[in-house]
Amino acid sequence: MVDLTEIKAFLACETPAKWVENALANQPLMLIDHAHCEKKAASTALNLMYRYVDKPDLLNKMSRLAREELRHFEQVLAIMQKRGIAYDHLSPARYAGGLRAHCRTSDPGKLIDTLIVGAFIEARSCERFACVAPFLDHELQQFYMSLLKSESRHFKDYLKLASKYSDEPINERVAFFAEAEARLILDSDDEFRFHSGPVKTDAIQPEAV
Prior knowledge:
By secondary structure, the chain is mainly α.
């Protein structure tokens, strides 16, 4: 079992119990969006590799991260296929875009903020896997618990890189994004997604049918 103490201290709030209820009522949709999240995480890592070719530490960390995220994508697809769940397009959650909207637009600030946002996305993913796993069937529970180690490592990698490439302490930016991230997690959403806030209804969304 991965120790989540550091992650919980990093995040400004815990996942609301209502979101866990939403997830259990929308498991096919949760898996579809989870697959999208893994693919987007790999894409983010690759984009950083293309943009910052002069940073060997970043290149190595992001290369490994992208491979792991794509492997997780494949694993989610395999579970979905076994369960007869079709992988399809979904409208994105407001979560990642809501965080990135606060990123500075020029470097080095843009890179630092992008890495901090990456740390929050990975930390929240890890926290959510741990929150929902105890209530899932054995196969899905085991799979989600197996992801905790890698997601926790990705969170630390992003945060270490942000500190490495910043000329000043990143505490203030981390605190800023922590507050923004908590609002996105606690405010209600109209549609359930893996990184959504709590949804007012437990009805399964049309995309999951």
